[in-house]
Amino acid sequence: MVITENPATGEAEPPRRPPSGGRGHRRSPRRRWLWRSIVLACSLALLIPAWSLGRVLLENNTDPLSARVVEWARDHNLAGVVNGVERYWYTHHPPPRGGTPKHGIPHAPAPVAARPVARPVAHQVAKPAPKPKVTPPPNIVPFVSTPLLGEGVWQPVGREVGGVPLAWATFLRPDNVHTSELIGVVHFDMRHATATLHAGTQLPGGGPWQHGARIDPADYSRVIAAFNSGFKLSGSHGGYYAEGRTVAPLVDGRASFVTYADGHADVALWGRDATMTPAVTAVRQNLVLLVDHGQLAPDLSSNSSWGATVGAAVYVWRSAVCVDAHGDLEYAAGPGVDVPTLAQVMQRVGCVRAMELDINSEWVSLMTYTNDGHGGVTPWKLLPSMLRPADRYLVYGTRDFIEIDAR
Question: Domain segments of the chain: what residues?
Fold first, then answer.
């Protein structure tokens, strides 16, 4: 402390304090340590998420950047924020009322004959396989009172066997209100087709897998189609089993897509219609049945049954798969669809049991395939408005999917 004298009066002036931050004022080591710790903690709090998100954005996969950010947020305790934003967006941007599809009913690509598949020579006379269906399934009665030309009428898609297609597609408007929206439906003749569950690079995890994250080029000569699977396991309320491994425990009472060693597939209520046997090769569970015994589920408007993200009543891209009375599979997908509408479509198609698959434009897609004339395949989107590129299942992807092949 310094005492000075006033030259005018000769009196001593009060002591002056050194300026703050000068040599006379020093933070104690403990205080300096506290501030440095706070700064370091704040830096790490920002750096670690930025590093984590940066890794996700730079990953070499085909997921859109927007989907990567959303999934990262869900995995880092921000699911409530993401769900709130999605609900707000979808409820304030419903599909338009009235109108007609801009380009009318799509024309499916013409089917191409499949190349013969080499098979081992049998030492006994095999029973002749039943012939593929020469005629398509019965057309679907449209929901609208004034149908468009070709609405609900089946068109052959994908490859043919013996000059006969194994898959048929049709398009219709799913309700009488949103008449500018289209939903696509594909019918698979499973007497002449097989189903295989493929694991993605991230979902379900637990690899390596024999049936991995893309269609094997060895299957190009017989692949008919591929389509999306279900929710992430954390939101599916069910389990996952494939290639002899259980990634998540199977749950009784859950809607289940089940594949068998002979190649056929079923949509089942696990524990009632299907149980674990040596013949089961894969089980993918997702929520509860949309349609059971041909009847609509009683809780189609219950948000607790149809996922925490947007629930049952919000109009978004949705997809579903079912088994009909003949054991054939039907897949349906489209934008601007709520859960009750999706279930009504599956019922009208003739489903005995149906289950919802994934939702949102980033994940819903079905591709059919034709020969390209050079040993490869040409992929085709079921609906032109599907967001993902047509080669989605020909390149490595993060999520599991289902492949349909000619036997």
Answer: 27-58, 92-115+132-406
